[in-house]
Protein backbone atom coordinates (compact mmCIF):
# COMPACT_ATOMS: atom_id res chain seq x y z
CA UNK A 1 0.00 0.00 0.00
CA UNK A 2 1.25 3.51 -0.76
CA UNK A 3 2.10 5.94 2.02
CA UNK A 4 -0.91 7.67 3.58
CA UNK A 5 -1.70 11.18 2.41
CA UNK A 6 -2.33 12.25 6.02
CA UNK A 7 -1.24 10.82 9.37
CA UNK A 8 -2.20 11.93 12.85
CA UNK A 9 0.12 10.72 15.61
CA UNK A 10 -1.08 11.05 19.21
CA UNK A 11 -2.69 14.44 18.60
CA UNK A 12 -4.00 16.20 21.71
CA UNK A 13 -6.13 19.34 21.50
CA UNK A 14 -7.53 21.43 24.34
CA UNK A 15 -10.28 24.00 23.91
CA UNK A 16 -10.07 26.53 26.75
CA UNK A 17 -9.62 24.40 29.88
CA UNK A 18 -11.19 21.29 28.34
CA UNK A 19 -9.22 18.32 27.02
CA UNK A 20 -11.06 17.44 23.81
CA UNK A 21 -8.70 15.23 21.76
CA UNK A 22 -6.91 12.73 24.00
CA UNK A 23 -4.24 11.37 21.65
CA UNK A 24 -5.77 10.82 18.23
CA UNK A 25 -3.85 8.60 15.80
CA UNK A 26 -5.00 7.45 12.38
CA UNK A 27 -4.00 7.46 8.71
CA UNK A 28 -5.94 8.70 5.70
CA UNK A 29 -5.04 6.47 2.74
CA UNK A 30 -4.21 8.17 -0.55
CA UNK A 31 -7.08 8.29 -3.06
CA UNK A 32 -10.54 7.42 -1.78
CA UNK A 33 -12.88 8.51 0.96
CA UNK A 34 -12.21 8.03 4.65
CA UNK A 35 -15.31 8.46 6.81
CA UNK A 36 -14.81 9.87 10.31
CA UNK A 37 -17.77 8.59 12.33
CA UNK A 38 -18.91 8.76 15.93
CA UNK A 39 -21.63 10.07 18.17
CA UNK A 40 -22.36 13.76 18.76
CA UNK A 41 -19.59 15.42 20.71
CA UNK A 42 -17.06 12.63 19.98
CA UNK A 43 -14.52 15.15 18.63
CA UNK A 44 -14.93 14.79 14.85
CA UNK A 45 -15.22 18.51 14.06
CA UNK A 46 -12.39 19.28 16.49
CA UNK A 47 -10.23 16.74 14.64
CA UNK A 48 -10.87 18.39 11.25
CA UNK A 49 -10.31 21.87 12.68
CA UNK A 50 -7.07 20.72 14.32
CA UNK A 51 -5.80 19.29 11.00
CA UNK A 52 -6.67 22.61 9.33
CA UNK A 53 -4.76 24.62 11.96
CA UNK A 54 -7.91 26.26 13.35
CA UNK A 55 -7.19 24.69 16.72
CA UNK A 56 -3.55 24.24 17.76
CA UNK A 57 -2.75 20.78 19.15
CA UNK A 58 -0.57 20.90 22.28
CA UNK A 59 0.96 17.50 21.54
CA UNK A 60 1.38 15.06 18.69
CA UNK A 61 2.15 15.33 15.03
CA UNK A 62 0.13 15.83 11.85
CA UNK A 63 1.88 14.77 8.64
CA UNK A 64 0.70 15.70 5.15
CA UNK A 65 2.58 13.65 2.58
CA UNK A 66 5.09 12.80 5.31
CA UNK A 67 5.84 16.45 6.27
CA UNK A 68 4.65 17.98 9.55
CA UNK A 69 1.96 20.66 9.21
CA UNK A 70 1.04 21.07 12.88
CA UNK A 71 1.93 24.57 14.03
CA UNK A 72 1.26 26.10 10.60
CA UNK A 73 -1.51 28.64 10.05
CA UNK A 74 -4.76 27.67 8.27
CA UNK A 75 -3.75 29.61 5.15
CA UNK A 76 -0.34 27.89 5.04
CA UNK A 77 -2.07 24.53 5.42
CA UNK A 78 -4.57 25.40 2.64
CA UNK A 79 -1.65 26.30 0.37
CA UNK A 80 0.04 23.00 1.19
CA UNK A 81 -2.93 21.34 -0.53
CA UNK A 82 -5.84 20.85 1.87
CA UNK A 83 -9.35 22.08 0.99
CA UNK A 84 -11.86 22.50 3.82
CA UNK A 85 -15.66 22.48 3.85
CA UNK A 86 -16.51 23.58 7.41
CA UNK A 87 -19.61 22.52 9.33
CA UNK A 88 -20.95 26.11 9.27
CA UNK A 89 -20.29 26.27 5.48
CA UNK A 90 -18.01 29.33 5.75
CA UNK A 91 -19.58 31.30 2.91
CA UNK A 92 -19.91 35.09 2.68
CA UNK A 93 -23.64 35.90 2.67
CA UNK A 94 -23.30 39.49 1.42
CA UNK A 95 -21.14 38.49 -1.56
CA UNK A 96 -22.46 36.95 -4.76
CA UNK A 97 -21.98 33.30 -5.66
CA UNK A 98 -19.35 34.43 -8.17
CA UNK A 99 -17.46 36.48 -5.57
CA UNK A 100 -17.54 33.57 -3.12
CA UNK A 101 -16.03 31.28 -5.76
CA UNK A 102 -13.43 33.86 -6.86
CA UNK A 103 -12.27 34.37 -3.28
CA UNK A 104 -11.79 30.63 -2.91
CA UNK A 105 -9.58 30.43 -6.03
CA UNK A 106 -5.95 30.96 -5.05
CA UNK A 107 -5.31 33.32 -7.96
CA UNK A 108 -8.74 34.97 -7.82
CA UNK A 109 -9.65 33.48 -11.19
CA UNK A 110 -11.11 29.98 -11.18
CA UNK A 111 -9.74 27.54 -13.73
CA UNK A 112 -12.36 27.45 -16.56
CA UNK A 113 -12.34 23.64 -16.75
CA UNK A 114 -12.98 23.33 -13.02
CA UNK A 115 -15.71 25.97 -13.15
CA UNK A 116 -17.38 24.05 -15.98
CA UNK A 117 -17.20 20.89 -13.85
CA UNK A 118 -18.67 22.74 -10.83
CA UNK A 119 -21.57 24.09 -12.93
CA UNK A 120 -22.21 20.56 -14.21
CA UNK A 121 -22.30 19.21 -10.67
CA UNK A 122 -24.31 22.10 -9.22
CA UNK A 123 -26.37 23.83 -11.97
CA UNK A 124 -28.06 26.05 -9.35
CA UNK A 125 -24.76 27.87 -8.82
CA UNK A 126 -24.74 28.90 -12.47
CA UNK A 127 -28.37 30.05 -12.26
CA UNK A 128 -27.66 32.17 -9.15
CA UNK A 129 -24.11 33.23 -10.18
CA UNK A 130 -24.87 36.93 -9.62
CA UNK A 131 -27.13 36.52 -6.56
CA UNK A 132 -26.02 37.20 -3.01
CA UNK A 133 -25.09 33.92 -1.33
CA UNK A 134 -27.30 34.83 1.63
CA UNK A 135 -30.40 34.55 -0.59
CA UNK A 136 -29.68 30.90 -1.56
CA UNK A 137 -31.60 27.98 -0.05
CA UNK A 138 -29.86 25.86 2.60
CA UNK A 139 -29.04 23.17 0.03
CA UNK A 140 -27.68 25.70 -2.46
CA UNK A 141 -25.50 27.25 0.27
CA UNK A 142 -24.07 23.82 1.02
CA UNK A 143 -23.38 23.31 -2.71
CA UNK A 144 -21.57 26.66 -2.75
CA UNK A 145 -19.55 25.66 0.29
CA UNK A 146 -18.47 22.38 -1.36
CA UNK A 147 -17.84 24.19 -4.67
CA UNK A 148 -15.55 26.69 -2.91
CA UNK A 149 -13.35 23.80 -1.78
CA UNK A 150 -13.53 22.10 -5.20
CA UNK A 151 -12.50 25.19 -7.15
CA UNK A 152 -8.83 24.41 -6.53
CA UNK A 153 -7.38 20.99 -7.16
CA UNK A 154 -6.23 19.76 -3.73
CA UNK A 155 -4.47 16.66 -2.55
CA UNK A 156 -6.88 16.28 0.34
CA UNK A 157 -10.35 17.61 1.13
CA UNK A 158 -11.73 17.79 4.68
CA UNK A 159 -15.53 17.86 4.56
CA UNK A 160 -17.61 18.31 7.72
CA UNK A 161 -21.12 16.82 7.57
CA UNK A 162 -22.21 18.09 4.17
CA UNK A 163 -25.64 16.42 4.34
CA UNK A 164 -26.68 18.07 7.61
CA UNK A 165 -30.27 19.29 7.42
CA UNK A 166 -30.59 18.75 3.66
CA UNK A 167 -33.45 17.16 1.69
CA UNK A 168 -32.70 13.75 0.11
CA UNK A 169 -32.59 15.13 -3.47
CA UNK A 170 -29.89 17.64 -2.48
CA UNK A 171 -27.97 14.94 -0.61
CA UNK A 172 -28.02 12.85 -3.82
CA UNK A 173 -26.63 15.82 -5.81
CA UNK A 174 -23.86 16.30 -3.26
CA UNK A 175 -23.09 12.58 -3.25
CA UNK A 176 -22.68 12.60 -7.04
CA UNK A 177 -20.32 15.59 -6.86
CA UNK A 178 -18.23 13.99 -4.12
CA UNK A 179 -18.04 10.70 -6.07
CA UNK A 180 -16.82 12.70 -9.04
CA UNK A 181 -14.22 14.45 -6.89
CA UNK A 182 -12.99 11.04 -5.73
CA UNK A 183 -12.95 9.74 -9.33
CA UNK A 184 -10.57 12.59 -10.16
CA UNK A 185 -8.11 11.05 -7.72
CA UNK A 186 -8.64 13.29 -4.69
CA UNK A 187 -8.34 11.97 -1.14
CA UNK A 188 -11.24 12.92 1.13
CA UNK A 189 -11.66 12.84 4.91
CA UNK A 190 -15.32 13.36 5.68
CA UNK A 191 -17.47 13.56 8.79
CA UNK A 192 -20.93 12.14 8.11
CA UNK A 193 -23.80 11.13 10.41
CA UNK A 194 -26.04 9.92 7.57
CA UNK A 195 -24.94 6.29 7.44
CA UNK A 196 -26.45 5.52 4.06
CA UNK A 197 -24.38 8.34 2.54
CA UNK A 198 -21.31 7.27 4.53
CA UNK A 199 -21.76 3.69 3.28
CA UNK A 200 -22.27 4.78 -0.32
CA UNK A 201 -19.19 7.03 -0.46
CA UNK A 202 -16.74 5.64 2.09
CA UNK A 203 -13.84 3.31 1.40
CA UNK A 204 -12.25 3.50 4.84
CA UNK A 205 -13.69 4.19 8.27
CA UNK A 206 -12.34 5.81 11.41
CA UNK A 207 -14.63 5.79 14.45
CA UNK A 208 -14.12 8.17 17.38
CA UNK A 209 -15.57 8.32 20.83
CA UNK A 210 -14.74 10.71 23.64
CA UNK A 211 -11.78 12.26 21.85
CA UNK A 212 -10.13 8.95 20.95
CA UNK A 213 -10.13 6.57 17.99
CA UNK A 214 -11.97 3.35 18.84
CA UNK A 215 -12.00 1.56 15.45
CA UNK A 216 -10.42 1.85 12.03
CA UNK A 217 -10.97 -0.42 9.06
CA UNK A 218 -12.43 -0.87 5.61
CA UNK A 219 -16.02 0.20 4.94
CA UNK A 220 -16.50 -3.20 3.25
CA UNK A 221 -15.69 -4.93 6.57
CA UNK A 222 -18.06 -2.68 8.49
CA UNK A 223 -20.82 -3.28 5.93
CA UNK A 224 -20.35 -7.05 6.16
CA UNK A 225 -20.31 -7.31 9.97
CA UNK A 226 -23.71 -6.74 11.54
CA UNK A 227 -22.52 -7.10 15.13
CA UNK A 228 -19.69 -4.63 14.58
CA UNK A 229 -22.19 -2.24 13.03
CA UNK A 230 -24.41 -2.62 16.04
CA UNK A 231 -21.53 -1.94 18.42
CA UNK A 232 -20.46 1.13 16.44
CA UNK A 233 -23.99 2.19 15.45
CA UNK A 234 -24.77 2.15 19.15
CA UNK A 235 -22.77 5.35 19.06
CA UNK A 236 -25.96 6.90 17.71
CA UNK A 237 -25.41 7.06 14.00
CA UNK A 238 -28.56 7.68 12.09
CA UNK A 239 -29.86 5.05 9.66
CA UNK A 240 -31.31 6.96 6.73
N1 LIG B 1 -15.55 26.18 21.14
C1 LIG B 1 -15.72 25.22 22.05
N2 LIG B 1 -15.66 25.50 23.36
C2 LIG B 1 -15.79 24.52 24.31
N3 LIG B 1 -16.01 23.22 24.03
C3 LIG B 1 -16.08 22.89 22.73
C4 LIG B 1 -15.95 23.85 21.67
N4 LIG B 1 -16.06 23.20 20.50
C5 LIG B 1 -16.28 21.90 20.80
N5 LIG B 1 -16.30 21.71 22.14
C6 LIG B 1 -16.52 20.44 22.83
O1 LIG B 1 -15.65 19.49 22.28
C7 LIG B 1 -16.27 18.21 22.21
C8 LIG B 1 -16.15 17.69 20.79
O2 LIG B 1 -16.92 18.53 19.91
P1 LIG B 1 -16.93 18.30 18.36
O3 LIG B 1 -17.74 19.40 17.76
O4 LIG B 1 -15.55 18.10 17.89
O5 LIG B 1 -17.71 16.91 18.25
P2 LIG B 1 -18.36 16.21 16.99
O6 LIG B 1 -17.98 14.77 17.08
O7 LIG B 1 -18.01 16.94 15.75
O8 LIG B 1 -19.91 16.38 17.30
P3 LIG B 1 -21.18 16.66 16.35
O9 LIG B 1 -21.43 15.37 15.64
O10 LIG B 1 -22.24 17.00 17.34
O11 LIG B 1 -20.83 17.80 15.44
C9 LIG B 1 -17.71 18.41 22.68
O12 LIG B 1 -17.80 18.00 24.03
C10 LIG B 1 -17.91 19.90 22.54
O13 LIG B 1 -18.84 20.35 23.50
Automatic annotation (TrEMBL):
Keyword Transcription regulation in record: no
Gene Ontology terms for molecular function: ATP binding
Keyword ATP-binding: yes
Domain (ABC transporter): residue spans on this chain: 6-235
Alphabetic keyword roster: Amino-acid transport, ATP-binding, Nucleotide-binding, Transport
Pfam family of the protein (one): ABC_tran
SMART domains: AAA
Family as reported in the entry's similarity comment: Belongs to the ABC transporter superfamily.
Identification of the protein by name: ABC transporter ATP-binding protein
Lineage: Bacteria, Pseudomonadati, Pseudomonadota, Alphaproteobacteria, Rhodobacterales
